[in-house]
Every structure is written in structure tokens, then in C-alpha cells.
Amino acid sequence: MLSSHTLNNKRLRLAYFDCVLTSSVLLIMSTLITSVAQAAEVISIKPAPNLHIRTLAASCAACHGTNGNPINVKNFTALPILAGLDTQYFITQMLAFKSGERPATVMHHHAKGLTIDEINLLAIYFSQQKRISGISPKPQLLKADHE
Amino acid sequence: MSKSHPTFDKLDPLNPSANQHLLNRRNFIKSLSLGSYGLMANGLIATGLLGSQNAMALASKPPLGHVVIIGGGYAGTTAAKYIRMWSLNNIAVTVIEKSSQFVSCPVSNLVLGGSKNINELTFGYDLVQKNHGIEWVHDEVTGIDTVARKVKMARGEISYDRLIIAPGIDFMYESLPNLATEEAQQLVPNAWKAGWQTVNLRKQLEALSDGSIFVMSIPKAPYRCPPGPYERACQVASYFKAHKPASKVIVLDANAEIISKKALFTKVFNEMYANMIDYRPNSLIVEVDVANKTAKTEFETVEADVLNIIPPQRAGKAAQILSLNNIDKRWCEVDFLTYESKIAANVHVIGDSVSSGLPKSAHMATSQARVCASAIVALMSQQQPDPAPVFANTCYSYVNDKMAIHVANVYRYDATKKIMLAADGGGVSDKPSELEASYAAAWANNIWSDVLT
Ligand SMILES: Cc1cc2nc3c(=O)[nH]c(=O)nc-3n(C[C@H](O)[C@H](O)[C@H](O)COP(=O)(O)OP(=O)(O)OC[C@H]3O[C@@H](n4cnc5c(N)ncnc54)[C@H](O)[C@@H]3O)c2cc1C
Description:
The structure holds 2 protein chains of 2 kinds. Chain A has 2 domains: 45 residues; 77 residues, Cytochrome Bc1 Complex, Chain D, domain 2. Chain A is built from 7 helices and no strands. The two termini of chain B are 35 Å apart. The longest helix of chain B is centred in the last third of the chain and has 19 residues. The interface between A and B is large, with 62 and 76 residues. Bound molecules: flavin-adenine dinucleotide. The site of flavin-adenine dinucleotide has 36 residues of chain B, from helix 5, strand 2, helix 12, helix 13 and strand 20.
């Protein structure tokens, strides 16, 4: 069923879906995706992502940048680049934060709230993201007409 | 259809130059609909309103629809960017924002402390617009018609398939009528929306002589940024300690106790700012004498040299238009899987306006925005949204110019209660540290990058 879509990595996609969707929902979604793809020739370009993991991963952006690409500014500690990170390394570190084996200021509060499944899937998600350098918006003078 | 798209009817497809003046108008987008999109996109290339690459993509691929977003703050701008990214640009997005600049509330307390300047927290919207092909309308929303699916602004109107309302907060001056005017707020600024009031409050602090009294008040929770007022007390005290050491900070808190990072702030107040910060719980402000800078609580009258009243708050005015603020007539009830309003179909609410029981923070606003963006892309592609969203929130507070503390949690959808709940394992810093101040700076710079580029 899944192989009917354009997929680079079938195992990855299966893992993604297993996490959050029952097979019946999957069947419905798969049908819907196909029909939308045929109608609009839009969705078929990329495999349907795992919405759960993608949204969770995106909430890391406040510190680790869009899609795991943090910006690097001189006056503060650069945070780990998650994009393209080795999956095994990601998993080992997150589990060490979770167990308390690796001391942390902040990360243990996040790692402990995640399930093992989520950590595994986040590892795959971030490893698939392209490394690019994050950009900063340019500061401006506050204008007179602002509140 | 034609009735709700008057501009489109006037366009002449055979005579592009005749269309230019129509398309050039700020409200050109009101003719946007699935059927007209190709023509619109061509017209927009001609007028230079859209980059040709974006316009070509729009012209050759029919979009899945049009989302209009009211408010380009942390929540609205994030939703705009992620809808574009996650729909592979197949959903058209228009943001209506009344201000031409983005001024960050996070870090704005450091302007009061003196270690930051407001111009370091002020940004333009150019990059995020350009990088993601977002239409941007600089106007103020005044009305919403959910039947015709149209948003009315001071200078035009726009049709939508789905609407996101992200206007932040509105101040409730009913209980403090003396503070309602601009003149009153010149004398007694709230500085709870970063901007000129922040600058004004800093100037008032700078003008003080040593031995002066700064009085600030905190409304009953829920309000924007639970730890923010305590951070502010620390920032002003930090400035006094270095430059006006005989001065005092009196904190009049309407709550029964410090409501965020309590143990940490208590320790900082008692140790770092002993004899400087005077914290008074259960101190609801009932009246303000603006001219004399005096605040009255139920129990006492407190005189100030500089007075900073943070008024009680509710959902932003744009959310009040449809009476979406159904919880206590203040906050908006939503479905936490999609952030669709419980009051109006196809209308979503995100950010501080939402009634969630969770801290109203910028990080939270962006997380809600992404869950909403993901759900809208799914719904508009006939897919099912994530049935169990999970996201993270980290909130830093600076206790002086060099050290910070945090509170961090993962939040998980509870299918029985149908709300987002804190997962086990969250918590706060052991103690203030310079390392965390460095992480706080990284947080600010990365969230600005994520939201604004
Ligand atoms: C002093 C202070 C410190 C803070 N520190 C932190 C921190 O360290 N970390 C953190 O996570 N959070 C912090 N916060 C909280 C954070 O600022 C808010 O939670 C966040 O801004 C909420 O985002 P929002 O998009 O809902 O609202 P906003 O960011 O306020 O955006 C709303 C936007 O809508 C626009 N708008 C409103 N009405 C209309 C209309 N009718 N038409 C057009 N446009 C309209 C406004 O101009 C504004 O740009 C702090 C807040 C304050 C006040």
C-alpha cells in the first residue's frame, strides 16, 4: 500500500506512521492522499510526512533553529546543530539526558517529557534535514509610528 | 462567488496594463479564489508585487486555498511561515499586521535594566515575506464576516478560506479607567507590549535620583508571560543596585504568591536584592492616581517616583470582533488539535488570546502556531491532522544583566480531557547562572530567526 507513493525511504516512512496512526486511518489517508495528488498534482512530489514528529521537531526551533539549523552569533554559546545529526548520536545523548546520566541545565526537562518512540523518530527526522546556516533578521531603529 | 470578488470582475484578462491600477491596490488580494488564482498570479508578476518565481509557482500549480492571518506577532508570523513551508507553497497566505515593525517583548525587560537597547529587539518583516512568498498587508482589522468569509480592514477587505486570529492581548481598562488614555500612559506606562512605552519607562528610571521608589503591579493570572513581571522587578533592581543603590522596588502582586519560578525568584529577591525588592502579595490595584503616581490596593496607598501598572488582560481586539473570547469574556476557547475556535467555523485562534491554562509565552505562541499550521495544511489537503500533538516550551528570565533561570516543559494532548497537559519531567533551573544567560540569548536569537526569516 505504501509503496504506491514516491518514497525514498520506505522503512523510515513506515516507522513514522506506526508511531501515531492506526492502520485503518492510514488506509483512509493513503487513499485521500492519492486522490488529492491526482487532482492537484501537488502532494505526490514528496512522501506525506509524519505530522506528529514534524510539529514536535519544529518546537525545538526556538533554540535549535528552523529544521535544526541554529544561528551562530559571537556573544553566546552555539547550540548543537540538529540538522543532519547522526541518529545514533542523537538517541544516545537524549537517552542520557532522560536518565540523568548526562548532566544538563535545560535538556533533561525536555528529554524526560518525550517517549522513546518520539526520541527515535526525532533522531530520524533531524538526520534527514539539510544543514544550512541559519540567518538572523537585521535589527532596525524603532520607528516613531510604532505603538 | 462574483459578488464577493468585485475586483476580479473588473479585471480584463486581455489587457494587462489596464488591470495594473486595480492590482496595485493594497486590497488586490480580495479577488483571490481558486478559480482566479492563475490570472491573479500573472497580474501580480506584472505589477512586481510577487517575485516572478513565487508567482510562477502559484500560476502553474493551483493552490489549495487561501489562509488569512490577523496579527504578525510571534504566533501569526510563525503560522504564516510554516503553512507556506509545509504546504510546499500550495496554500496562499496573507498576513494583516497593523505595525510596520516587529518589536520583541522577550528581552524587553533588559531595556529597563539597561543592558539592551530597544533597537536591538526591533526587526522588519521583509525577510520572512520574501523567503516564503507571504502576502503582507499593513493595515488594521476592523471587521470579520464569517458568512462571506471576508476580513474588513481600515483600507479594504480580503476573502479567506480559513482565517487565523493572532492579535496578542488587549488591556482591560474598565477596572482602571484612569489609565485608559494615551496621556495617562505617558505618565504611567505599562510597557507590556514592547515599544515606545518600554523606552519611556527606561527614561523615567534613568531620570530618578538615588533613594527613589519604583512601584510596579502584577494583575491576577492569567496574563501575558507569567514570569515576566518578576523578571522586570529583578531588572530594575539590578539597575538600581549598580547606579542608585539607595532606591527601592515595590512589587504589588494581585496574586497570593509568585506564580512562576517561585522558589528561584524568592531566593533572588531575598539574596541578590535584599532590602531592595519589597514583594507584597494579595495586592490588587483598585485605583490609580496618575498625576500623583499613587496606586491604591484594598489595604494601602503606595506612592511612587516611577509607577508601572500592568493592567489585567484579555484576548486582542480582533478576537473580540466575533466574541470568540467566550471564557470569562476574556480568552478564546479552541480545539487543541487544530486551534479552530469553538465559536466560529474555519476561524482559528493562536497565541496569547487562547484560553489554554498554559503559560502565555512567545515559545508557546510559536508552538501553537505550528500545530495550527500543520492542521490547516492537513485539512486543506484532505488529510487528518495529528490526533495527539506534543510540543516543548522553554522560558528564560534574566535575574540581572549576566545571569538567567528557566522553566521548561513538554506539553502533550490529553485525549480524555481534550487539553494540553504538562508531561512529567519538566522543571526549573537549580540556580541562576551565566551559562543560562548565554542559552537565553541563543533562545532569543534563534526564535527571532525562526519567526522572521
Ligand atoms: C516584558 C515581557 C517579557 C516577555 N518575555 C518572554 C520570554 O522571555 N519568553 C517568552 O517565551 N515569552 C515572553 N513574553 C511573552 C510573549 O511576548 C508573548 O507571549 C507573545 O508575544 C505572544 O505572541 P502573540 O503572537 O500571541 O502576540 P503578539 O506577539 O503581541 O502579536 C500580536 C500582533 O497582532 C497585531 N495586531 C493586533 N490586533 C491587530 C489588528 N486588529 N489588526 C492587525 N494587526 C493586529 C499586533 O500589532 C501584534 O504585532 C514576554 C512578554 C512581556 C510583556
